[in-house]
Design a protein that fits this description.
- The structure is a single chain.
- The chain is of the alpha/beta class and about 475 residues long.
- The protein has 15 helices and 14 strands.
- Helix 10 links the parallel strand 6 and strand 7.
- It is globular and about 70 Å long.
- About 35% of the residues are buried.
- This is F-box domain-containing protein.
């Protein structure tokens, strides 16, 4: 997403004195108010890889609500056009279209790209009959937006029903959305039945010749986030109209949420198309999977891992079962990997080795069941330079002893290339300062690189008195703890 320009004070708004002459009450200067409003506007953008739907929980439009603080804040907001670029419409509101019209009119004073969020207030519809109403209202809002002929940089649509979402291929092909850099389509419940002939159905949607004639010569799209149902639609459209690839050619960030073997239409061919699509995105820097669930023996085993896996700068896998992770990793070659809130069910799951290019690993919010598989993984991780363990129950004295034993059994040094170790908010009572230092001392006995940085932050064990042990575990750089 493009960065928001720095706000310039409007000369029509007079700066108030810091201290009111009659009361002595200190006032906030205009520049500080502008900074507060700017921060509210920038931090209210939802995280596409969030574990739960961010669109019903995130305070989008916070800057607009802050204008109600007082008349001075309202004046600053109304005189700062760059704050009007976020257009938020709740499609389950009776005033959705009026709200869109009002916000569009307000934003006409700026030539900046708009960010449109078509969201829902309630987590679930009030009744089954609201399905048709939701689909109709979303279509009306998008049609109204097209008629307004405003340049859109961000489009986020969040619905309850799959059938209410616009087809991603249609959005990508429409000239009205040619400036979109950030596209997210998400829903909660899949109510679409699979067509008897998906390719014929896709051709009926895209037309005999596809969208090639209407596509721009280049693409602005850099961030794409789709739920599983929308991914399947896109893959089918790609099969019938290869020109859609042109709109994805500059993609830098791709997030896929809630994709599983039970997703309608997701079988072995679409999985192969998905892997091919990821491999074809030459500018892709970040790939994220949230709630990916591929049952063993259903899809991935039918596709042999490539000799040269797809290079990805950063791979994030969240809320995903370990067997799925084990099946996915051979197809990708990231340099940075994040595993967050993934599921490790006993007994010990399939062993796996990290791709050989991985130098940075983040393990976040992992349970004690992750201990055995992670001991195996880390003992085989010879290219690791930076390791972050965040808010994870598996990290304990027992795990550190297990890790040492596994590495010793393989006659391998402990994290031989590691330069930076960060432990954040690991409050497991079974993890102690002495246990961590014993582990670092044992590591230092082998032929390993010297640590350049050690960070122990938050509620993790406190390294209050290192003393002579500071040098014992071969720390070359700085140690930090809070």
């Amino acid at each position: 997403m493009s960065s928001t320009p720095v706000i310039q004070a409007n000369p029509s708004v007079q700066s108030s004195s810091l201290v009111h002459p009659s009361t002595g009450v200190r006032r906030i200067s205009i520049s500080i108010i502008q900074t507060i409003l700017q921060m509210a506007a920038s931090t209210s953008i939802p995280d596409p890889s969030a574990a739960v739907s961010p669109f019903t929980l995130c305070a989008i439009g916070e800057a607009r609500r802050l204008r109600l603080v007082c008349t001075s804040w309202r004046a600053v907001y109304d005189s700062t056009p760059s704050l009007w670029t976020a257009v938020v419409v709740f499609h389950d509101s009776d005033t959705a279209q009026d709200s869109l019209r009002t916000q569009i009119d307000k934003s006409r004073k700026t030539s900046l790209l708009l960010s449109l969020y078509v969201l829902r207030r309630s987590a679930a519809p009030r009744a089954m009959e609201s399905k048709d109403g939701e689909r109709e209202m979303v279509n009306r809002i998008l049609d109204q937006l097209v008629r307004e002929k405003r340049r859109i940089g961000t489009l986020v649509v969040d619905t309850y029903w799959t059938s209410s979402l616009p087809d991603p291929a249609t959005i990508l092909a429409m000239p009205a959305f040619k400036d979109v850099r950030h596209l997210e389509l998400n829903c909660t419940f899949d109510d679409v039945t699979p067509p008897s002939d998906p390719l014929t159905a896709a051709k009926r949607i895209t037309g005999a010749n596809g969208y090639g004639a209407s596509l721009p010569p280049f693409s602005n799209l850099s961030t794409l986030s789709l739920d599983g149902k929308s991914v399947v639609k896109l893959l089918i459209s790609l099969e019938s109209s290869s020109s859609i690839y042109r709109r994805l050619s500059m993609l830098e960030s791709f997030t896929i949420t809630h994709l599983s073997s039970s997703t309608i239409g997701f079988t072995a061919p679409p999985m192969e198309y998905l892997l091919f699509l990821i491999d074809s995105l030459g500018h892709l820097k970040r790939l994220s999977f949230v709630d990916l669930d591929i049952e063993e023996g259903t899809i991935l085993p039918a596709i042999y891992p490539p000799l040269f896996p797809t290079f990805i700068g950063t791979l994030e896998i969240k809320h995903t079962k370990w067997p799925t992770i084990a099946h996915l990793l051979p197809y990708l070659s990231p340099s940075k990997v994040t595993l967050e809130a993934c599921y490790f069910d006993p007994p010990s799951p399939i062993p796996v080795q990290l791709p050989s290019r991985v130098t940075h690993l983040t393990l976040s919010h992992l349970s004690e069941y992750a201990a055995h598989p992670l001991a195996e993984i880390l003992s085989n991780w010879t290219t690791g330079v930076e390791l972050t363990i965040d808010s994870s129950e598996f990290l304990s004295n027992e795990f550190l002893l297990l890790f040492r034993a596994v590495s010793s059994g393989k006659e391998r040094p402990i994290l031989e290339s590691l330069r930076h170790l960060r432990v954040v908010d690991c409050s497991n009572r079974q993890l102690t300062t002495s246990g961590l230092l014993d582990f670092l001392e044992a590591r230092a006995l082998g032929r390993v690189s010297r640590l350049e940085a050690l960070e122990v932050i938050g509620s993790s064990p406190k390294l209050l008195d290192l003393g002579e042990r500071y040098r014992a575990y071969n720390l070359a750089g700085n140690a930090a703890w809070e």
